[in-house]
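Entry for biotin complex. Fields follow.
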Amino acid sequence: MKDNDFVKKAIMFDEVSSTNSKARELALKGEDEGTIVVAKKQNKGRGRFDRVWFSPEGGLYLSVILRPNIPPDKTTLFPLIAALAVSKTINYFGLSSKIKWPNDVRINNRKVAGILLESETDENQLKFLVLGIGVNLNIDIEQFPKELKEISTSLSQELNKNVNYQDFLDKLTSFLAMYYKMFLNKDFDKILEEWRKLSDTIGRKVRIVTSSGEIIGKVTDVDESGFLIVITISGEHKKIMSGDCLYLDS
Ligand code: BTN
């Protein structure tokens, strides 16, 4: 697969409930790998842990259908891959974004993009993945709800000018293509090496809220699956698959 072969078909909407829901619907009907669903706005944008993803016009809302031939438990690196592609794209446009594990992309500690990976499996077989990406591109953050305003930013706010939507989308999909290809070639070390360079999580004191409780400790690394490795105060090494990460030392 060449980099520019990645997007086989683009389906654009002015408004949808959620590009992830739309992409899932299409994938269930057989839509191929490489189809992307893009919308100018979403009225039911979804984030991780069933949170709302505020999706006014000006943002980029993208979902990619992927059908890698891998077991379902090998998909955990995808959110990190997407965050890496988003962060690289943002930095290409002159900003300095960082990744907070697993997949929050931030500029000056404010969230600018998020990733939502959803999968469809059948008898422990992966049918497809929907990789959803939301980027606060050309958005005046003043219109965000109060609780989000303080912790969010947008590219236009950081650059004091708008970014060309199509240029951003093209760059983003070409980075996604590159990292997806690396993944299929099992170049996990290379992906993680790049992820580590752009992440500000390693070495931090953190509190991770997981579905089975809370872990406090210092982050030592991420492993090949994208799991966070944390050493707790009692010296125990824990591997964390998913959770909400909060920095305690900034
Ligand atoms: C998060 O940080 O919680 C993840 C946010 C993911 C938002 C994107 S926007 C495009 C796609 N469609 C959705 O409904 N969600 C994802």
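NOTE: Helices lie at 19-28, 78-92, 146-149, 155-159, 165-184, 188-198.
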